[in-house]
Amino acid sequence: MFFATAAPGLSTVVLDPGHGGANEGALCPHTGQHEKVYTLQIAQAAAEHLRAAGVKVILTREDDRDLALADRVRLANDAGADVLVSIHLNSSPRAGPVGHETYFLSLSASDEAARRLALFENDGAPVPEEPAPSAQGDLAAILMDLGQTQAHHDAQALAAHLVRRLAPRTPFPARGVKQAPFVVLLGAKMPAVVTEVGFINHKDEGRYVTSDAGIAAVARGLAEGILDFGRLVNAPREKRSEK
Ligand SMILES: [Zn+2]
Prior knowledge:
With 243 residues, this protein is of the alpha/beta class. It has a single domain, classed as Aminopeptidase (3-Layer(aba) Sandwich). Helices cover 44% and strands 16% of the residues. It contains 7 helices and 6 strands; from the N terminus they run E-H-E-H-E-E-H-H-H-E-E-H-H. The chain has a 6-stranded mixed sheet with strand order 2-1-3-6-4-5, with helices on both faces. Zinc ion (ZN) binds at residues 18-19, 25, 35, 88, 121.
């Protein structure tokens, strides 16, 4: 049976506002506020867009509270979500780096900056640092699950759609699709990514991504990327499987 939904290929999307409660995330030197404030605002605004497009959206947190990384993944799995997007703002020891980037799960990080970022975002949760043979075995075991192999493959496509749709929504560069060992993505049964929408400590971008206009624009780009993923990746597959 075929029936069209308002948003092809998507029924439930879980958005994860990074950090919360005592886990404040990176500090914005311009506003004196932390990352957790803006991840929630961006998630709420993105949720509005998606709901307007007919998608059921669940936020892992609706307010400023502590929430373990494993609980965020569990919530998405239990909800049977089509997509999990964990929303963050980047920060760097130096003030130089600028732009947005989106990650899918890998035990080996794209580069040293990606590895350090994952350590920060993991809130001290243990993760294998480098793919030692045993750790590789663990990840391989996780990925061997058929559904998760497909989901992991699709996560790369989801990341690419987010990067593509964010690009025109921010005046700062697209740093592309990257990989790193983010604990919040471990064990997700659906395509899951961490998006870092901009550097909170950059002199210009830090102001943009914490401004009302920047939050609205970034949220719109994220929603558009998620809708594209549903329409271009999920929906054609669902159609094929109905034949
Ligand atoms: Zn973060």
